[in-house]
Each structure stands twice: as C-alpha cells, then as structure tokens.
Amino acid sequence: PLVDTHTHTFNLSALQSIPLHSPLALPPPPRRPGPTPGILRRRAGAAMAARAPYFAPEEGARGIRPGESPAAALRRILATPGAHQAPCCFDALGARLVERAGFPICFMGGFCVSAARLGLPDVGLISYGEMVDQGRLITEAVSVPVIGDGDNGYGNSMNIKRTVKGYINAGLAGIMLEDQVAPKACGHTEGRKVISREEAVMHIKAAIDARKESASDIVIVARTDSRQAVSLDEALWRVQAFADAGADVLFIDALASIEEMKAFCAVAPGVPKMCFSI
User: Which of 114, 205, 129, 199 has the alpha carbon at shortest distance from 167?
Assistant: First the structure.
C-alpha cells in the first residue's frame, strides 16, 4: 500500500513510480467506531479529576434520574464528598456544552445573562422575567441540575417569594439570593452596599416559605456581599444566620485569602459552601 494506515508511514518508492499526471486513488481508510457520549463524559471527568483532585466525578452522582426532581438531583450531588464544579452558562447551548464536558452541575449567572441577552453590565438591569425565561430555556436543554442566579430577589420579601416560585416552575434546581441593596452591582466591583441584617435574614425566610408553599425542594443558596461592603466578621455572622434560617448552601462573595475561606468553612460545618473561582 502507499499509506500504512496503522503507522502513518509512506512507501516512497511506490509514490515515485506514479506519473505526475496520474490521479492518486487511495482506498478510504477503515472507519473505526468513535467513543460513545458516556465514554466522552467519563474521559472528561477523569481529566478534570487529574487537574483538580477534589473534583468528584462519580458517574452515579451525575444527571437527573427518571422520576427525580432537578432539586433532588442537586441535593444528591451535594451529599457526595468532594468539591463539585458548576461552570456558568448564559444560554441553552452553553449549558449543553457544560453537560457534554462532564460537569455535574450548571450555573446560570446573572452577569453573563445580562451581557449576552441585553449587552449590558451586571448592575441590576436584567429583570426577573428575563431571567426566568432564560432559565426555562436552559433547563429544557440539559439533564443536569441548574442553579439560577436570583440576584437580590428583584424586590422585597414578597418579590422574593414570587421569584423563587418562578424559578421552581422554570425547572431550576437551585436559586442563589444575595443581600445587596437595589440597584445591585456585580460581585467583583467595589462600592457595594448591603441591606440590614434583619432584612437579609427575612429574605432567606421568605424564600423558604415560598418553597414550602410550592411543595418544592429547590435548593436555597444564601449569598452575602458584606465581606467587601462591611467586614469579614459581618459576613461570617450573616452566613451563620442564613444557615439558622434554613438555607441549604452558603456563599460569601469576595473572600480575600485562604485563611478567610477556612474561617468561612468553619461556620455551620454541615452546610455546603459555595465559592467563585476566577
């Protein structure tokens, strides 16, 4: 043969015997079956585990099982040991890429949805209706649980209850709620301000009430921006209060060191913690 398809070496003497004007007709190489989607997901999970030892890519913990709610799937994943990576997405195609890459959870971020849908920065311009609509399109496209960014709930406690119920109906597995004043700002900017302790805790309680009223198990992710706005001690107080109110996951934005992360993880040890990796 002119080409050995197994070693990709060329027979030069055979090539030299062919006139320049003659067509070079080679038999097509044998078709080999490619890897299945399941194999691709396992390879992706193994690759991520090699890069991040705390990543837990157990095949049994991934995806929403038949008869299982998105929130139940998310709770099952969070109950497994290790750190669970949840890349951000802003549309259905991005969510499918996250799922195809083997990640167990997807996060719909307000920053990226505002940028992609409106072409505007994350300064409180995206609305509840636009986020719910985007979330519904995303959850319909994937079979992994999706956490939706609920910003500051788009209003007071009554608005928060409506927001939580809307996210439940859109098929989102979790909702993240923060304690910034309106209009809110991106978590990576200076000059943020937060509402009072009492109002912040009331918002988390309102979210839990909405969950109960909907007979849902949506995961409530309680976020505080008080680390940058006030102090680390204030942020630690707030996440403890959020845990006492019934939040399922805690998040302090803008922690400044490993020591601060350790102090955060020491609060409510039985409650999962979230962090952003930029």
Answer: 129
CATH number, domain 88-278: 3.20.20.60
- Given a contact cutoff of 8 angstroms between Cβ atoms, the answer to whether 110 and 149 are in contact is yes
Report how far residue 74's alpha carbon sits from residue 139's, in angstroms, rounded to the nearest whole number. Answer: 13
- State the average pLDDT for the chain: 85
- The pLDDT of residue 61 is 57
Q: Half-sphere exposure (CA, 13 Å, Cβ side) for 98?
A: 28
Range in 1-10, 72-81, 106-115, 254-263 with the lowest mean pLDDT: 1-10
How many CA within 13 A on the CB side of residue 256?
9
Domain boundaries, the chain: 88-278
239's CB contacts (< 8 A; 6+ apart) are 222, 224, 250, 251, 252, 264, 267, 268
Regarding predicted confidence, which is higher, 30 or 71?
71
| pLDDT greater than 70 at residue 198 | yes
Helix (H, G, I), strand (E, B) or coil at 41: helix
